[in-house]
Design a protein that fits this description.
3 helices; 120 residues; mainly alpha; 2 strands
């Protein structure tokens, strides 16, 4: 799904489309935003293609396990925070040298909302 959206956006860029690289897509392998090593591997992949990054789009997220908020423990929501809060920080930090090399870098944070419906 991410790769398809990246391809669609690349088409909108016209002659600049060859400069779009979707890291964390099915074709390039997953990016685990909860892992420093995975983020570093993504940076290495991008460096194989360019020496700068104009736009970083943080689009990873997880809704969690659907635990009732009244019953949730820190252990229950740890993975949610590791992905949704610390993940974008981890990935952005890893890509900072490439972003700083760009003339006008941008970081885009994509978010969503989940709803716990509770018990009937």
């Amino acid at each position: 799904m991410v790769a398809e959206r990246a391809h669609r956006y690349a088409q909108q860029l016209g002659d600049r489309a060859d400069r779009v690289l979707a890291v964390g897509s099915r074709s390039r392998g997953p990016l685990d935003v909860a892992s420093e090593e995975s983020a570093a591997g993504a940076v290495r992949l991008v460096r194989e293609h360019t020496d700068r990054m104009d736009v970083l789009i943080n689009n990873a997220g997880t809704p969690g396990g659907g635990v009732n908020p009244a019953d949730a423990t820190a252990k229950d929501i740890h993975a949610v925070y590791d992905t949704n809060v610390y993940g974008p920080v981890r990935v952005t930090h890893a890509f900072l040298p490439l972003l700083q090399a760009a003339d006008n870098p941008r970081v885009v944070m994509v978010t969503g909302a989940g709803v716990y419906r509770g018990r009937d």
